[in-house]
């Protein structure tokens, strides 16, 4: 989870790539990444909810 100070919670391409990299690194360690939430002053976005992971 992190915030976007701009207020727009839309995930950037960097957010998506970083999340996928963390998932790939965590999987062999037996760690499950359930979601990546981005918070902005105009709401929030879930990468899982957006079907990006």
UniProtKB/TrEMBL annotation:
Q: A Pfam family name for this chain?
A: RadC
For this protein, the record's Gene3D superfamilies field holds: Cytidine Deaminase, domain 2
Keywords attached to this Swiss-Prot or TrEMBL record, sorted alphabetically, are:
Hydrolase, Metal-binding, Metalloprotease, Protease, Zinc
Q: Which domain of life is it from?
A: Bacteria
User: Which InterPro entries does this entry report, sorted A to Z?
Assistant: MPN, RadC_JAB, UPF0758, UPF0758_CS
| Residue ranges of every copy of the MPN domain listed in the record | 1-53
Name of the protein in its database record: DNA repair protein RadC
Q: Which organism is it from?
A: Bradyrhizobium yuanmingense
């Amino acid at each position: 989870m992190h915030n976007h100070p701009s207020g727009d919670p839309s995930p950037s391409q960097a957010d998506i790539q970083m999340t996928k990299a963390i998932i790939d690194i965590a999987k062999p360690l037996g760690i499950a990444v359930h979601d990546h939430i981005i918070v902005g002053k105009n709401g929030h976005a879930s990468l899982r909810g957006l079907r990006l992971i």
